[in-house]
Design brief:
Helix 3 packs across helix 4 and helix 4 packs across helix 6. A hairpin with a 4-residue loop joins strand 10 and strand 11. This protein folds into three domains: 63 residues, no CATH class; 47 residues, no CATH class; 97 residues, Zincin-like (2-Layer Sandwich). It is built from six helices and eleven strands. By secondary structure, it is an alpha/beta fold.
């Protein structure tokens, strides 16, 4: 459901959690709230009123951030790959399949001259997906052994507001394809975060304690991820 306070809409989603959680997301300052099923709408509204100043300050900070221009996937654009900035270089090929490669400080995208911007984007993200899968496969498997968990199913897709999610009862993890653009230590934080949800399905004290036991600097990694 959506609750409107003054001129701001707050998206409210009910989940199997203990407490209420509030977040403001870039780039447009969207406000989202997760609440337990037993919390009444009146309690939600009272909570939002209490947090109103925080919401306003957080939205001001988010909206003040410079926005990236719409990408056209042409030569000269800056693109991130595991936290490092590269310059995109689009090269035309007359035949054969498309190709993406790292050469020095450039991401080289080779494709036919008539390839549209939408298709160039798809080609680049196909490459991102393949590279991210290699990293995730190693990280997930290493952490499963480290924490003594049985195998899980996992996949990737582009997501708007979450870096990952976990369906504990089905032992399924989902990772945001945009993780291919962030530093590897942040990718590892998301992996450990979602694996920890297999044991604790909320973000309460038990979850935080287990995260600290497994990844002592997880708060610093989370902060770094939030600043990206």
């Amino acid at each position: 459901m959506t609750i409107r306070i003054e001129d701001i809409d707050v998206e409210v989603e009910r989940k199997m959690i203990r407490g209420m959680r509030l977040a403001v997301y870039p780039p447009d300052g969207r406000v989202r709230m997760s609440v337990p099923f037993y919390i009444s709408e009146r309690e939600v509204q009272d909570f939002l009123v209490q947090k109103w100043q925080w919401i306003c300050r957080s939205r001001e900070k988010v909206l003040a951030r410079p926005r990236n221009k719409s990408r056209e996937y042409v030569s000269g654009e800056q693109h991130l790959f595991f936290g490092k900035r590269y310059t995109l270089q689009v090269e035309s090929v007359s035949s054969g399949t498309h190709e993406v490669a790292i050469e020095g400080d450039q991401i080289i995208l080779r494709c036919r001259p008539q390839t549209t911007a939408e298709r160039r984007e798809a080609i680049l993200y196909e490459w991102y997906r393949a590279q991210l899968h290699l990293v995730l496969e190693q990280m997930v498997n290493e952490w499963l052994v480290r924490i003594g968990e049985a195998p899980v199913e996992w996949s990737t897709r582009r997501m708007k507001s979450e870096w990952g999610s976990c369906i504990a009862r089905k032992r399924k993890l989902l990772f945001n394809l945009e993780l291919a653009r962030v530093p590897r230590e942040c990718v590892e934080y998301v992996v450990v975060h979602e694996l920890t949800h297999l044991a604790v399905q909320n973000h309460g004290p038990a979850f935080k304690a287990l995260m600290t036991e497994r990844l002592p600097d997880w708060k610093e990694r989370r902060k770094q991820l939030r600043l990206l």
